[in-house]
Design a protein that fits this description.
The protein has 335 residues and is α+β, with helices and mostly antiparallel strands. It contains ten helices and 13 strands. Helix 3 runs antiparallel to helix 4. The termini are far apart.
Length: 335
């Protein structure tokens, strides 16, 4: 082959690669899963219209995150996109529609983690931040810290131009009535159906570059003591991502998930024992947590794009799109 032929071949190869890059196609398989809370839920308790709206919102969020991945975007961007959509929805316990603490105030927690670098960001006990997950990401990318809390986190949010909303934006009548019921029986998170929802939201994703990410956001537990922090902003408990093992976002009774370091434990079992993603998830959620008395669930993804949506309650709002682009949406444990 002469020099001219070589040059021509190189030109066409370069053009082909440029066209692929322009098209934004992922280099490898992509997958995403989301959740919007686990808990005691049944079809008898959830009106059909609400069921329909929740499923539609789950589909919107998972498709939006998958679109980021399918166009060559990062797993961090995908989980951020999916979680912000769930935070903006009034149906779930994160951002708008978050539960009230004992003082009748919305206190919000969130975290995000990059599986490629093990960088992470988290915020705890913040007020009036429209999308806490975006603030958590700013903590990761624009500060030297991993977690900021309360007024300090809010001051940082203002410095970074994060959007705030007034109290009325977050308030829903349904959450307010849940608080009244919890106060009436003098308990945190009223145990009667359908209010006992551990309805944190979260997302995990694998992008075309082989990078994993996880993000989680919550309003905590109804009637919680002010200042209570759950598992969501605790890296390794409610959120964890490592390209060498898996990405996990959890939803459940946070005190148990902190004590069991649920998210990291799942990834560690893959890393150190060779367990599959589903085996590790079952060992932690269906055995270890159950033995402790902990309730809830997780979503997880591994470097091959395998997904796990595992929970030990009667339901978990969840959705996924796998490496084949197949979509799945479920609420109850028989779906």
């Amino acid at each position: 082959m002469n020099i001219r032929t070589n040059a021509t071949a190189l030109f066409f190869l370069t053009a082909m690669l440029a066209n692929q890059a322009h098209a934004g196609e992922p280099a490898g398989p992509v997958a995403i899963a989301i959740h919007a809370g686990a808990g005691s839920m049944s079809r008898q308790d959830l009106p059909p219209e609400m069921d329909k709206k929740m499923r539609a919102m789950l589909e919107q969020a998972v498709r939006a995150g998958h679109e980021v991945l399918a166009s060559g975007g990062s797993s961090l961007d995908a989980v951020s996109k999916a979680v912000t959509i769930l935070e903006d929805a009034p149906f779930f316990n994160a951002g708008r529609g978050a539960v009230f603490n004992a003082e009748g105030i919305n206190e919000l927690d969130a975290s995000i983690m990059d599986g490629q670098t093990l960088n992470a960001g988290a915020v705890a006990g913040v007020h009036n931040v429209r999308n806490p997950v975006l603030l958590a990401r700013k903590v990761m990318t624009d500060s030297v810290h991993v977690m900021l809390a309360g007024e300090g986190a809010e001051a940082f949010a203002r410095e970074q131009g994060i959007e705030f909303k007034d109290d009325d934006y977050f308030r829903t009548e349904r959450r307010w009535q849940q608080l009244q019921k919890a106060k009436a029986v003098k308990t945190v998170q009223a145990p009667h159906k359908p209010d006992y929802w551990l309805s944190t939201v979260g997302a995990v994703a694998l992008d075309g570059q082989g990078n994993l990410a996880a993000a989680t956001s919550t309003g905590g537990m109804t009637n919680k003591r002010w200042g209570r922090i759950g598992d969501v902003p605790v890296i390794g408990a409610g959120t964890y991502a490592d390209n060498e093992s898996c990405a996990v976002s959890a939803t459940g009774h946070g005190e148990y998930f902190i004590r069991a370091t649920v998210a990291r434990d799942i990834c560690a079992r893959i890393e150190y024992t060779g367990a599959s993603l589903q085996e590790a998830a079952d060992q932690v959620v269906m055995q270890k947590l159950v033995d402790m008395g902990g309730r809830g669930g997780i979503i997880a993804a591994d470097p091959q794009g395998n997904l796990s949506l595992t929970f030990n309650t009667s339901g978990m709002h969840r959705a996924s799109m796998d490496t084949e682009g197949e979509i799945y949406i479920g609420i109850y444990n028989d779906e």
